[in-house]
Amino acid sequence: MCGIAGAYGKLNDRIVDAVRVADATQKHRGPDDNGFWLDQSAGVALAHRRLSILDLSPLGHQPMIHQASGTVLIFNGEIYNYCDLRDELLSAGHTFISHSDTEVILKAYVQWGPDCIKRLEGMFALAVWNPQRRELLLARDPLGQKPFYYTFLPDGDGGQALLFSSELRSLLASGLVERKLSPSAVSNYVWNGFVPGPETIVKGVVQLPPGHLMIFKEGQKELPSPQMYWTLPPAEEGKIDPVDVEHLLKKVLKEHLATDVPLGVFLSGGIDSSAIAKMAVDVSSSPVMTFTIGFHDSNLDETEAASRIAAALNTDHTNIQLQGNEFLRLLPSAMESLDQPTFDGLNSYIVSRAVRKAGLTVALAGTGGDELFGGYRSFRDIPMANRWGRRLRSVPKPVRNFVGALASGRSQEIRPQTRWGKVQSVIETGGNLLSVYQLAYGLFTPEFANTLLGKRPNTSSFQGLPKDRFIDLLKQVQKESSLTAVSRLEFSLFLGDRLLRDTDAASMASSLEVRLPLLDRRVVEAVGKLSPEDRYFPLGQKAFLRERILRGLDPALFDSPKKGFVLPFETWCRGPLKPSLDASFNEVDTIRSIGLDPVPVQKLWKAFLDNQPGLYWSRIWSLHTIIDWCKRHQVTL
Q: Where would I find the Glutamine amidotransferase type-2 domain in this sequence (predicted)?
């Protein structure tokens, strides 16, 4: 788990210096070591910040160079099947001087070339320079757990140079990226509360999509496009025995436990994290450490439930108790940790900081269980809303409008910005499941989102997504059953563009590595082959994890409703945070400079303070966050 930065092309001194600055800005991602490699004649600069996890010795230093071929690698992440790959490479005649997964990747590339990427099971973003073939390979892991941002810069000779990094903010800090917002990204942010990829909030900076690679060759006239090497495959329902999935999960979990630094399992008291802790106990020969973040509010605190589960599992358990005033004190640094504006992610920062402070460097989490096994309400609500949308297509439009207006509460100046407030929009979809999903998850009704944006249409976006992304997702979900279609959308949008991105930025701000065994590619593919009965039903129960992974434990341990680690923003926004929000929403010039209309922004804030129904804190916080982020980083339209 580290940070990478680099450049390729005709590199002048300004671009080389920009790589150094981008690297230095990411020190929090890798406080243990750093390295820089430059071949000015080849036009390659590579930088690395190291958070030492496997083989803590200098033998794991990066950039790592293969002496015989001159191949150079920088890598961020973890490869969980590195031991198997190492054995295969040893059989092929390779020798190793370290015990790091970095050296395994390097020699896998030497042995198999770019095809080695398909053999890597893990989370990663990497760059490999091949001096013999004069080409640079860039790649990102299948699910997008590790970030990869890039842009193209004028090289001063009529061409373009590539500049890339693990964080968007480090590219801004380089001084060579124009601090301009992407208008379509602002529009999509207002809809979602985050920016869906591959675009970013900054104009000209894009993300390498998950499961993609790019190859730059010396002398090529056209810039390469990302090539997909993996995508979530269509479900093959009933093609695998649940026992085989259970065995695979435990194999993968054992690989995720490999580390040379302190590791613990985040135990929230819910099904997913308990399943991870239970498997860790089953496969580990040493005591398993678990930890829970406690909150002073008994309505939010999960330490009691988690402690009962830890006792049943016989883990070495720690409750890390935090007070409300500590959260408020940490909010400025939490806001600073956001790599892109997002209304979420602050919980992850608070948790990561507390865990790192407690002495752990690696934490295992249960992220992915809801997406895999139908744990969210969306698995019930989206198909139901979609069915009603199809049924009402034949109803005369005036009747549909009347029903929609009645449900949406049009009598209020600002109608509810909730799913009920979007009933008419859902009816108008006519049964398009992707549109229903986007409307359900959107922070605002489409009409009010346009009002916030000054009613300026953005032709490159559609329902909160880049148009090309919308069309691609639409093709994918049309081939799936409704439940698997919702799962695919949760993986791609909620998980891929929001949760994983926020987790990486928040955890790396505290130099903490978070591993997610349920999101191992092998697990995701295998679960897609389960029958619907084994995978989803009964809906919301995640019965596969309950009955197969957690068997032997008292079911009563999991009967209480899961509270989730949720900060009391609803109360704070009307209380101790009110002065900051007041100031933010009164910065009229700043609000205009980022493409928002100050009048509806201020009306929304007033309606929230007046406790108008259907205006949750997340709507307010999302606008405050983008205003704060843009001001903090001096970015405007």
A: 2-219
| For residue 300, pLDDT beyond 70 | no
Rounded-to-integer distance, Cα 174 and Cα 7, Å = 12
Residues 248, 157 share a domain: no
Q: In which domain, by residue range, is 626 found?
A: 569-633
Residue 296, pLDDT > 70, answer no
Where would I find the beta strands (DSSP E) of 82-146? Answer: 122-130, 135-140
Report the alpha-carbon distance of residue 63 to residue 457 in Å, rounded.
46
Regarding beta strands 465-466 and 461-462, do their DSSP bridges make them parallel or antiparallel, or are they unpaired? antiparallel
Tokens of 501: 């991105």
**Tokens standing for 636?**
């405007």
Length of the chain: 637
What is the strand order of the sheet 135-140 is part of? 64-65, 72-79, 122-130, 135-140, 212-217, 227-228
Report the binding-site residues for ATP: 293
221 and 281 in a single domain? The answer is no
Whether the pLDDT of residue 419 is over 70: the answer is no
Question: Which phi and psi (to 5°) does residue 72 adopt?
Answer: -125, 135
Regarding whether 270 and 216 lie in a shared domain, the answer is no
Catalytic site residue from 2, 116, 573, 630: 2
Query: Residue 119 class from Cβ within 10 Å (0-12 exposed, 13-18 middle, 19+ buried)?
Result: middle
Binding site feature residues for L-glutamine:
101
The residues that bridge with 191 in the sheet, in sequence order, are: none
Do 521 and 385 fall into the same domain? no
Listed in sequence order, the residues at least 6 apart from 140 whose beta carbon sits closer than 8 Å to its beta carbon are 124, 125, 146, 147, 148, 208, 209, 210, 211, 212, 213
| 552 burial type by CB count under 10 A (0-12 exposed, 13-18 middle, 19+ buried) | exposed
Structural contact between residues 196 and 464, judged by C-beta atoms closer than 8 angstroms = yes
- Omega of the bond prior to 234 within 30 degrees of 0, cis? no
For residues 456 and 547, membership in a common domain is answered with no
Residues 438 and 389 sit within 8 Å (Cβ to Cβ): no
Query: Any idea what the Cα angle at residue 323 is, between residues 318 and 325, rounded to 5°?
Result: 150
DSSP 111: H
Q: Count of domains in the chain?
A: 4
Q: Is 2 part of the annotated catalytic residue set?
A: yes
Q: Give the end of a domain, one of 228, 258, 293.
A: 228
Percent of the chain with pLDDT over 90: 78
- Which pLDDT score, from 0 to 100, does residue 398 have? 61
Residue 234 lies in a domain: no
Q: Are the C-beta atoms of residues 165 and 200 closer than 8 Å to each other?
A: no
Closest Cα to residue 296, out of 332, 269, 326, 335? 326
Nearest to 17 by CA among 175, 156, 153, 154: 175
Question: How confident is the model at residue 345, as a pLDDT?
Answer: 84
